[in-house]
Amino acid sequence: MDFSLTEEQRAIRDLARTFARDELIPQCTELDRLPDGEDSFPWELVERGSKLGFNALAVPEKYGGSGADVLTQCIVIEELSAGEPAVSKVYSHNWKALFGLMAIATEEQVKRVIPGFLEDPRYCISIGITEPNSGSDNSLPYSGTLSAGPGLTAERKGGDYFLNGTKQFIAMGAQAKFMTIFARTDKSVPWTEGTSGFMLFPPKEGFEVGRLHDKVGLRLYPQHDLIFNDCRIPESELLGVENEVHAGRRDITNIGTLEATSTALGIARRAYELTLDYAKERVQGGKPIIEHHLIGSLLLEMFTRLEASRTMMWRSATSIDNGGSDDPKLARATKVMTVNMLNFVTTRAVEIWGGMGVMREAPIEKIYRDAIQLFHMGNTNQVNMLKAMDDL
Ligand SMILES: Cc1cc2nc3c(=O)[nH]c(=O)nc-3n(C[C@H](O)[C@H](O)[C@H](O)COP(=O)(O)OP(=O)(O)OC[C@H]3O[C@@H](n4cnc5c(N)ncnc54)[C@H](O)[C@@H]3O)c2cc1C
What we know:
There is one protein chain. By secondary structure, this protein is of the alpha+beta class. The protein contains 12 helices and 10 strands. It has 3 domains: 7-119, Acyl-CoA dehydrogenase/oxidase, N-terminal domain (Butyryl-Coa Dehydrogenase, subunit A, domain 1, Orthogonal Bundle), CATH 1.10.540.10; 125-243, Butyryl-CoA Dehydrogenase, subunit A, domain 2, CATH 2.40.110.10; 248-390, Butyryl-CoA Dehydrogenase, subunit A, domain 3, CATH 1.20.140. Strands 1-4-5-8 form a 4-stranded mixed β-sheet, with helices on one face. It binds flavin-adenine dinucleotide. Flavin-adenine dinucleotide (FAD) is lined by residues 127-130, 135-136, 140, 169-171, 218, 223, 373, 376-377, 380, 382-383, 386.
């Protein structure tokens, strides 16, 4: 397998690396300290990165975007996440949302969103799936349990749907200019056969953004509750075909899974690089701690796991670029391995930094806090394993 990057891929990787080093790292450390995530959303940086081309990177050329392939998307996400994963997530979440939209919407519906998205460097999109009582359920086809899956209902009356219920943990709920919302249109069948997607352009009567969740990490990437109280959505904003949202989204699972994987990889790389530098400078027993073999071997293990995850991620991305998702378990297995690697690497980083590793004056504690978010994004390890096992 050829691992060399094209000239175009190297150029966009270098642009992302420079943006991360010169702008994201210096500014986001301060923003992360602000007590309330509402005030800390990095609007200026999001706008700046959009103007450099990151928000439009994955939008297909036929819609006016740059049409980057999946490998290029992964490379850019790794670079940006090594600077500030929250800013990287704004772009990559938008890409994921747009791919989701393209998978289920009509051409006319896609065209109602994309031009505004490309014109506005602050355009954010939300995907509303999770609810207080349904998280992993929304990714597992519980065929015999009608209560599993979304509880938020969309009841059809005449030519309109009326949405009632609450979504939870929805990224950029207060910032989004467009949302896709999953709602139950038929509760007499399993959710996989009775759930539909809806378009929502806030503000809207009957729709309210609820509380902001106060997270320990990725604080610049906010999650909100979304509250629906007889919110009227016209039939023209039902995405694609009623009850078929699950079937329509299957093809984009691998891209969504690799999006979270490359975020994890970027965070792990930054932890490793900072720790390598620290171990070369920090002297104990008269020599840099990297020369104490127990520390040197830990760093080597961090390096090895990081490289193994990147290799697997590039292989997964290339397999999608070369003709679709030829092996559905590959991306899921890659995500599980990478998240485990990330939490291994960041824990070892905190260990190698000694007491300074948990001090807020040093950079490692933030990376450690950010890392644990990845257990829950792009599906949990357990969900990814269950689904990958089905394909063995
Ligand atoms: C930073 C962040 C951003 C997010 N952004 C969004 C967003 O934009 N939109 C959105 O809709 N959601 C979002 N979420 C929610 C996320 O998708 C859910 O947290 C995730 O799907 C897990 O659901 P849960 O939290 O309800 O956990 P639960 O489903 O309650 O799971 C709890 C534990 O049980 C395990 N488990 C559950 N079922 C099984 C089973 N059958 N077998 C074995 N183990 C099982 C899980 O793996 C997990 O370890 C976000 C979450 C976070 C932390």
